[in-house]
Amino acid sequence: MKLLIDFFPIILFFITYHQAGAITANTPLGDLFDPSQPEIIVATMLATGIAIIASFIQVGGYWLKTRAVEKMHIFSLVLITVLGGITIAFGDPAFIQWKPTVLNWVFAAAFLISQYVGKRSLVHRMMGGQIELPEAVWKKLNFSWVAFFIVSGLANLYVAFYYAIELDEKTRMDTWVNFKLFGLLGLTFIFVIAQAVYLARYMKPEQTTEDKP
User: Fold this and answer.
1) CA atoms within 13 A on the CB side of 171
2) What is the pTM of this model?
3) CA spacing 20 to 30 A to 39: which of 120, 135, 148, 155?
């Protein structure tokens, strides 16, 4: 459920982008756009606007449920509002395409700084209550997250601006939108599974029989 909440704006962005033609043709939202604008610009602006609204709903809904907010949600909300707002104002998809990279690189910087500032790294703070690990392992784990966020940011830039540049603009934008949901989500799943396999060696086996007197 939490994963669905975290990806709520991205999922709505994906759906809205690919259904933009039907939405603008059959709802009052179509009146907000200039008919002379290219289809890809209209789709991107509409999907970005919906994603911004979804981000506010994400933060508000999470607060209503838990009476708390997650820093990741807040920072993502600020980023999508600023970069998404610029995208809508100028009709340029490049700004919203930078958002996943900026978000991932800020996370990478936060995890890296936490390794040297404070008593425990971010990974240790998040997972320390569930598992006991040697300090050297916590350090490796934290750096692995730094590397993951850096790689994810680079992958987004590559797909957004350098992948298959010989193709038409719409095909490239479609590819990036698909990658934004399935590609980045897939990279996250692969990384988490690899991390679980690595941590398995440090898990203590559960006691299956009671001690005899």
Assistant:
1) 7
2) 0.85
3) 155
